[in-house]
Amino acid sequence: MDTQRLILLFIFGFSVLMLWEAWEREHRPKPAPVAVTQPAVPTAPQGKAGPAPSVSALGQVTTSGSAEPGETIRVTTDLVIADIDTRGGSLKRLELLKHKDSNDPEKNFVLISPAHQYEAQSGLAGEGGPNHRSLWKAEPGPRTLAAGSDSVEVRLTAEGKDGVQVQKVYTFHRNSYVVDVALELKNGSGNAVNTYAYFQLTHDGKPEGNRNTVAETFGAQSFTGFSIYTEEHKYQKVHPSDLDKGKAEHVKEAKDGWLGLVQHYFVSAWIEPQGVLRDYVTEKRQDGTYAGRMLVPVTLAPGAATNVKVELYAGPQEKRRLETAAPGLDLVVDYGWLAIIAWPLFWLLEHLHSLTGNWGVAIILLTVLIKLIFFPLSAASYKSMAKMKLVTPRLTKIREMYGNDRNKMNQAMMELYKTEKINPLGGCFPILVQIPVFIALYWVLLAAIELRHAPFILWIHDLAALDPYFILPILMTVTMVLQTRMNPTPPDPVQAKVMQFMPFVFSIFFFFFPAGLVLYWLVNNILSIAQQWQIQRMFDRDKPAHAKR
User: Fold this and answer.
1) 328-354: per-residue pLDDT in tens?
2) Residue 232 burial by CB count (10 A; 0-12/13-18/19+): exposed, middle or buried?
3) Predicted structure pTM score
4) Spatial contact of 144 and 69, defined as CB atoms under 8 Å apart
5) Domain count, the chain
6) Among candidates 52, 47, 178, 42, which has minimal Cα distance to 122?
7) 229: closest CA among 256, 261, 262?
């Protein structure tokens, strides 16, 4: 098997796998429609706080004046614009000021929004409340992060039916996507209260409506769903399709970890301090939406007070910020099954970017470094191909002599390879070694938000998207044609004809790859051509006499 056929086999198999994933996603059975009802609120367990309420334990809550609309409180910091609705005290909208919309670069990206019934809710479980459907009162105070100030606070108050007075406090910080959310509780009744403080994320389960991303175009699935991390069970995904079937499996109780809602490039996650018991619940609700919640048991003696404080990270999947926010939160960056290679690649790419200030230049430098690392293997491959090119006329002659006797033809070819000390598969191993690097870099360019909307030069404004004018794929095709012509011509005329059109077949796939990946492969091809030309030149100059026959 020669190098071109090996590359074709790789690209074809890789493409079939991704197209199959896309087909399976589009044709999997759709969940049966459900009647739309008012979302349920977790009910508080009676007596001692025990296991978290299950789906069957959810009940409806009725609050006085439930039809009365709430007030929208808008909070502005250096990174976000957040809308908090006093009807429920929920975070209903979160606009990221440093990230642009996928479809309209003139607009900011909105992470939490009513468009996907995406909310960050919190309160006390059960009909006693107050919960995410109660009417809260906003205390007066600043709503914009002032110059020279590190934080801005929003305080809401409400009282439950059982006499528990609650103050919900949102604290937004400068240069941070972490929001502190505290429930300050005081039992104003004469009875002990056993309940749960819950922190919940809701979503309709549908991915971001952008059909122009590379992931959607070429079938690479980006995960949209819940995720849970604990030290014992590590990172667990909860797919909406599993919730549809009632087969979602994940850790239910722990003293560490977080619960998040993941989508391409962005994540929201409730983070509880280490050592505090919490329960994790995910479900499909009666209104067809999905909910994931973290519940913290609370026991209040008469007249007692306590404070339940968690953090909400809601922002981009930037590795440094994720690592700082919580252990394991950086695992939401999905680099596929070759993450062990992808992480070092991204680390190196990030350092090169810090030196150059341009992600495209960083990709070029990364390509050069990878080429240098694989130089000995590549040199061996090109030497093998150069030797094959020298003996091609003799192979053609053998094929003509023994065309009707395949055994004798193969025997004669093997004797020729042995005499000339040629390994016919010598050019394959270096390519096989580089295939995992290619796939890992593909996922890095798809998953790393640092490359989202990252410009290169001139017409390339987003290295994570398709080349808008397909200039890089066209140049890629030219280099592949040139490489094919530099390689030995197969003795079989039919095979030779196939190899002639092979670069054009390959190039089709690169029209669907992100510009950054095409840039990597284009530079790699240019370097390979230079290396191959030099080695071929050396062999032509030092051609052994017996190879001229």
Assistant:
1) 999 999 887 888 999 999 999 999 999
2) exposed
3) 0.80
4) no
5) 2
6) 42
7) 256
